[in-house]
Amino acid sequence: MKKTFLNQSCGTWLDAIKVTGLLAVTAGTALAAPSGITNNVMSFDTAASVSGSWWLNGWGGQAAGTAYSATQDHTGNGGGSINVVDDFAGGSQCVQLGWFGGAWGSSPKYDLTLYTNVNFWVKWDTTASTIQSSTFNTTGEKLWLWGIGSGNNWINLAQFDIPEAASNGWAHINWLVDPTIPGINNLLGFGFKKWDGGGHTGVSSFYADDIQMVGSFVPPPPPSMKAPHKAAAGLNITSVTGPYNRESIKTVSTSDESFLTGGAKTYAFTVKQGVNGSGGAQFQNHIFLVPSPGSETAPDWNEPNVIMMDLESTTTGGTSWSFRYKTNCPNANNMLYNNGPVTGIAVTAGGSGYSSAPEVIISGPGAGAYATAQISGLGVVTNVVVATNGTGYVTAPSISFANGGGSGAAATASINPYGMGTLVTLTDSNILTGTWTLTVSGGNSFTMTTPSGQTTNVTIDATAAALFPAPVTAYFGAQAGNSAGVGQLSILSNVTITGTANPLNDTFASSATLNTNNWVLNENDANAILVIPGNANYNWVYWTLPATGYSLQSGNSLTSFTDANPIQESQFGTLEGALVATSGSQEFYRTIKRVATGLQVLFPGQTNAPGTLLGYTGTPTPISLNTQGLTPSTVTVNAVDSTFHIVSETGDNIKLTTSDGSATLPNNQGLVNGSVTFSGANGVLFQTTGSQTVTATDVDNTNFPAATSASISITP
Q1: Domains in the chain and their CATH numbers?
Q2: What is the pLDDT of residues 472-502, one digit of tens each?
Q3: How far is CA 622 from CA 67, 287, 714, 716, in A?
């Protein structure tokens, strides 16, 4: 079993990333930085630099916190640093150690492809830490440097150790930027995270300071094109981001795919194109069977009861086909990958005299379970909440209480003895395509079949099976299991469900969209799932990274190109890939980087129209002061090139003025991906009738001339 499919306890977690130039240097020694630009992301010189920007969150019940430290500063110039503290005494699973240089939900502001290094200083707090930095480094995963991507996705950048030298002073960490990591050209900010798997006991405390991005004035080389190839028909599932981002389709909520009653049921999918794992890519196709789920994209984590069939790529270039399930285990997946978890603790005696919640001690033939007690105002233990289920409890562990100032409390634990971990696995060493089938009979007897004809059986306890009542939703999808799996594509040519109340047989061949009578998109990333019908002509076109600011054009000769307008565009390993419609005749492709030369101002009723004389179509919708009242009008400003194509400029602040001297004007706003819309309370409130205009000025780029809108009619 690959570890990559285990460590999902804290959202999106990578196993490893190959980083060139990740170094830990002796205390007080700085690395030689490339000549060029330096951007000080965060120096933590004031308490305000920490409040509102940093947070710490953890799973497993541990106490933790982040704070500004005025006494610890790596430069010694009277500033400060951030102090990150975590108490792992409760068997923590993972810790998110905040962000710097941005804010959750803010506008993207960093393009790491323009930089060569990210570096910072760390110091281990030997006074507050009860564990050594070496223990912190070797338990669970190493500390991650991570980015907050557009849409608030976590992007894993690099792993590093706290250097031993950091126990004696400040030590320098330097990361050589890998420009092929998806999403690093559009970051909101940065942070640290740690996953430890419940292996720590004790307190870790360290300081971080003077985080910088260092770059070169030398621009990266332009991308080079790869030979296009015809897209294959079927359900195309791309692992756009991740790893561990599930991309699935699921049966509609009115469709019941239950297996508890009636005759035999089958759930099957046919892989037309699989992912070869011999090059290191870990990738999973899956079936989830879930009773009455919510709208989440990871039901195998969020829902309490799940049957999971995962088809994983192997290093031999084949697949492993495994049966797993969990019951009574919401917001966790340890039951899918391990056996014997603690599922609940019942208070049998409340005791008395507890001035604070006592510590819950779980003793037995297992590990990792952690729980917290709750008391009433009368000093009585009223409840025990299991925060971490743990693994390996063959029999129910004993429960005792310590501290809290009281006595007499007692409780008993329950475990789930049914089928945790991988119950059975079928392995085909060199098969990537074909049909994988799960058959259910009698409500709890399952048969697995591979394309090579291998079969095996597994029976789950009837009590556990009863936790899957109708209606059951069926999911079919995929996810990447490591960074090498991100960007990989698998294609399903058929999905079938037989014997249920709502049988299905979909070949995805007749339409470019899902049949909404049968399916709902349940994807983590837009366009991760595409239906390509058999009669459609599409090409996959690829070019090398980095390619920030480049877009794809196509043409039927080397002298005539227009924008290709891809149906989908995403990263495939170290390549950018675009799915484009083709006429089937001779076609040429190229990438082009547009340079913004000015601004464009549009009102409702107008639409950007690149390549036209005016750069837009339509006319501004007239405004009636009587109807408008106190509702400001919407104004959109685009950064455009000489042919009015919108160019992905981010960060420049735009100021609006108007010919209406009585109008109320909005505050300045920053461009995001080449555009900014002034609307709602931050729109323009006209006050004067007649023909009025709005002028936009880029206050950060004086090379852009001011742009004035078309006239808009203001009536009484």
Answers
A1: 3-214 (2.60.120.260), 229-337+420-532 (2.60.120.200), 342-415 (no CATH), 598-715 (2.60.40.10)
A2: 999 999 999 887 888 899 999 999 999 999 9
A3: 53, 53, 6, 11
